[in-house]
Amino acid sequence: MRRLAKWLVGLAVVGVVALAAAFGIARWLTRDGVVVPDHQASAERGATIFAAAGCAGCHTAAGDDAVALAGGRALETPFGTFYGPNITPDPEHGIGAWTDEDFLLALSQGVAPDGSDLYPVFPYTSFTRMTPEDMLDLKAHLFAQAPAATPNRPHEVGFPFSIRRSLTFWKLLNFEAGPEPAADGRDEAWHRGRYIVRALAHCGECHTPRDAMGAADEAMFLAGNPEGPSGEPVPNITPDPATGIGGWGEGDLTYFLLTGMTPSGDFVAGEMGEVIAGTSKLGEADRAAIAAYLTSLAPVANQVGPPRPAPSEDSGEGEAWD
């Protein structure tokens, strides 16, 4: 019996060592180093990036008395409820103690300053496409805001998703860091639109359906998500004429991104209303670039939620949709 006990203990030790080694190898495979560029960060430029990224929407709690960017906004997902953290420059509860390298690692690799992996509810899967210069400008803008000593609220995530170390393997299977390559034959405006949609505004995080592991289905990019934030459906925004925005022209989209009004006269509400609050602060050229990119995509037929009203010149006011 004593020999058997020693054998079982030895086997357990070997298993723990093997598991630790596997985590270590996976962590090594899913992380790249970051190079902090020689860049004079601008809080003014960062304000534009902040607006496009919609940071306030996830990092400010609901309610008129909420402190801006102090965290607490709940995001319900099939894996649990996540709470946006404090991203004010408070050194204890916010990101005031983060270095430039810390900030770049978080946005481009999904790695916290303590070396732990971040849950992909923080859209580093999109932010990884940002340029380091834009990341540093965003950091400059955030550090120019008022600090708030508001503690972060713990996520409410059940087993096994509560095991943060499992994210190492999730990233190995579902995450590829780095910018997208240039597309031949596309002009500067198209590339700018793609950059805003796929990186800064991270539109695919809400408008693309996800698989059982919570990874975005790239084959259905922007084709609508039946279970978006707070469990609500998010519509198809590919140019499919029946289920998407194929009936919208570039001018319709540009005006929508400025005002939130659809071609049928409806106004967006909820999370999309917060997105419009950001895109309305962009320059006209940026909104036109977004429209040019979205209308260039291949249409994907995928009805999500109730059918949209057809555009009409005299449709008048209608119900708001998210």
Written account of the structure:
With 322 residues, the protein is mainly alpha-helical. It folds into 2 domains: 39-174, no CATH class; 188-296, no CATH class. It has 12 helices and 3 strands. A 3-stranded antiparallel β-sheet has the order 1-2-3, with no helix packed on it. Strand 1 and strand 2 form a beta hairpin. Helix 10 packs across helix 11 (270-279). It is globular and about 50 Å long. The chain starts with a helix and ends in a 26-residue tail after the last helix. Residues 2-22 and 314-322 have low confidence and may be disordered.
| Helix count from the secondary structure assignment | 12
| Alpha-beta content class | mainly alpha
Shape: globular
Radius of gyration: 22 Å
The mean pLDDT is 86
**Poorly predicted sequence stretches spanning 5 or more consecutive residues:** 2-22, 314-322
The biggest beta sheet reads:
3 strands, antiparallel
Query: Percent range for helical residues?
Result: 25-40%
Strand order of the largest sheet: 1-2-3
What distance lies between the first and last C-alpha atoms, to the nearest angstrom? 66 Å
Give me the strand/helix succession: HHHEEHHHEHHHHHH
Topology:
Layout: H1 2-29, H2 43-53, H3 55-59, E1 74-77, E2 80-83, H4 100-109, H5 124-127, H6 132-143, E3 156-157, H7 167-174, H8 188-200, H9 204-207, H10 250-259, H11 270-279, H12 284-296
Antiparallel strand pairs: 1-2, 2-3
Helix pairs in contact: 2-6, 2-11, 4-6, 8-12, 10-11, 10-12
